[in-house]
Amino acid sequence: MKALGVSGLLAITAVLTFVPADAKKPTENPAAPPKLLLQDKRNSPTDLKLSGDLSGAAVYAGRYLAYSELMKLPQVTFTVTDDANFPGKVEISGVYLDELMHALNIPGKNTLVAAICNDEYEAHYSDEYREAHHPILVLAINGKQPALANRTGDAGSYGPYLISHASFTPLYRTLAHTEEAQIPNGVLELRFSPEDQVFHAIQPRGDFAAGSPQMQGYQIARENCFRCHNAGPYGGHKAVVTWSSLARTAGTKPGYFTAYIKDPQSENAYAQMPGFPEYDDATLAALTAYFQVAPRDQGSK
Prior knowledge:
Elements: E1 38-39, E2 48-52, E3 63-65, H1 67-70, E4 76-80, E5 90-96, H2 97-103, E6 111-117, E7 122-125, H3 127-133, E8 136-141, E9 162-164, E10 173-174, E11 177-178, E12 187-194, H4 195-200, H5 213-223, H6 243-252, H7 254-262, H8 264-267, H9 281-291
Parallel strand pairs: 2-12
Antiparallel strand pairs: 1-3, 2-3, 4-5, 5-8, 6-7, 6-12, 8-9, 10-11
Helix pairs in contact: 5-9, 6-7, 6-9, 7-9
């Protein structure tokens, strides 16, 4: 799991997402999208790879978009103050993910967009997430390409791409977990997959009520754990531990499983996963309950 930073009913608090008055929603412009030139190989470190297993995806899957092609798309610019990638206020410019999908003729309904990073971390953008938060593929930070904009505190850059928002307001809170902004940097690739097919790979085995610990844990794991732990071909590959391995550990060593989530370094001094000290007993119990009924037959990394 990676953060940028049991009982009871499923606690989901729906709120309206703030969008500045001058913000244009994706595909609001009725003009036909520009025709984008796709490349068969990466010719530059800033070429964005496209992949996916949607029906009819052969036109873009396994191909690349140059930065200059992305700049042909309708751009939006915002002053951002709540993105944890940045130490303070910053101006970002870029293209809405939905606008890019429109230009590529990728259907918006039932499409999960995965942003795959240079460390094999993934961020995931469901229909619901894109509709609520309008994620932006960032093409400039204070006027500079992300690949040329240095991150504060280290020698790295934000590039080749990152994803941000004009602003972010969580849609829900489940137990001690609040929905987090999906704001990866170092994005190399966008993968487009059928949303129902991807989430089916990690759905609980069995029939559980919406407010059950298993379903509460599933909602948290789907957003959080899925970014680093893979279930077969889906999910992040940053962690060496697969979804199946998590399920086995939750089933055979539940005490170790919950202790590791709360404070990984207390269980393994070399652990790279961030801890979640804010997760209370009910939240940890829900995650354990979910992984005890999670699929265990997925392929490994």
